[in-house]
Amino acid sequence: MILLTLVLLSFFFSRLVNLTLIPVFADEAIYIHWAQTAWHDHNQRFVSLMDGKPPLHTWLMIPFLKVIKDPLVAGRLLSVTAGLATLIGLYLLVKKIFNQKTGLISVWLMVISPFLLFYDRLAVADSLLTAFGVWSFYLTVLLIEKPDLGKAFLLGFCWGGGLLTKPPGLYFIFLSPLILLLFFPLNKNSFLKKNIFTFFKTKISYWLLSLMVAVLSYNVIKLSPLSHMISVRSYDYILGKREFLKDPFQLFWGNFKAILAWLYSYQLLPGIILFFLGLTFLIKKAWKKALVFFSWLIIPLLGSAAIGKIIFPRYFLFLQPWIIVFMSFGITELISKVKKFRDSKVYQSLLTGIIYVFASWPWLLFSLWLIFNPVKAPLIEREQNQYLTSWSAGYGIKEVADWLKEHHPDEKVFVATEGFFGTLPDGLQIYLDGFSKIEVYGVGQPIHTIPEKTLERAKTVPTYLVVNSNRAGDFQDKAELIKEYPKPEFPFLKESLLFFKIKG
Known about the structure:
This protein is α/β, with parallel strands linked by helices. The protein is about 60% helix and about 5% strand. It folds into two domains: about 1-225 and about 270-375, no CATH class; about 390-500, 3-Layer(aba) Sandwich (D-Maltodextrin-Binding Protein, domain 2).
């Protein structure tokens, strides 16, 4: 109990300290703005479907927005809560399949995992999907072990929740029958004694009930006339059936290498070593467990590599718990072998300490950088670019919003921004929620010249322009620079957010 308490305290520390140190980025701005829209207008509860995104993440964010003033904190606290659900589910699962010691190691690794920590602190749907994945596995185990209607319904709602969060939730349903391997004996004598028909009939009937509950839960989107947009927009991100059959490997190798590189960048070398040690030990000791957990890891990875037209590292966050399962088992086995190797308690304690340091220190250091100085964290360039340096990183946006609220609390104001959605204008809009007289609108990008409509407005109403430096022209004759907000400087990019007042 003491160790679990320490793990929980470490979890909250790692997820809550400096929660807004990284500013809002493009997707967060969109998702939070959707949640605000759905909150204020019940007719817009399915607003996320306009972009082909399932609505559950939007809906679950609304209660946080109602009680927390800062919209970015509210949105990110949803991910923190989802991370807590993942932690609890992973502990219960690993404890049940292995033992309590391995369960404790797994949740400690989860707390310090840079991959999970990073995205548990961002207002994106991937932490929520990860939680549904872990609980889908655990509830399937419970249902197979002792079937009843309550567990079947809980599993069905969990599957439905996954589908209503992101389309990869389908993997949790397709992979769940593999968990039957954990319970069905495959040696010849036991196999013949077992009533095969009764075994499968009982388990599959409850599985089908869970599937029906999941389908009915997911069909809530049919209440919206935009439900078809999920399939329509999906083909912007994945290959269609005809495209795939025409050349099944057209994307596979490039995606496969990229995904492995991304996963490696968050695991680091000690994590990879422990993963393969754990996999090897588990194959030798309990090959069925190894096969099931490895299938939950590798099948989604291969599937996404085969059909993914647009992929980002965070799309594979839901695979991290299965990597941790193998790592935690590897650590447990290493420690048990150390205890058998020498009788000396001092020697055993020393080697055990070395194992824990080897397993924990690289991740712990990486995670501490993410918490206290993310610019120095060893993120790959793709991640640095998206969250810290380029147009998608929202440095200065909250400051611009605060300036506008301070100087024009009750005055009609127009604010033009680059782009039409994303960090701008959505990032400004989330911070100006409730200030209806400050109208924010996007004018596209890049902005070489100030649009005529914006210049006309400036003649009668205070009008401003917010644009990233690498997308801005020379406005000195038509606009006054109020403030420049620099973003972290990297060798590959130097950029600032520029805040102008248009001359009337």
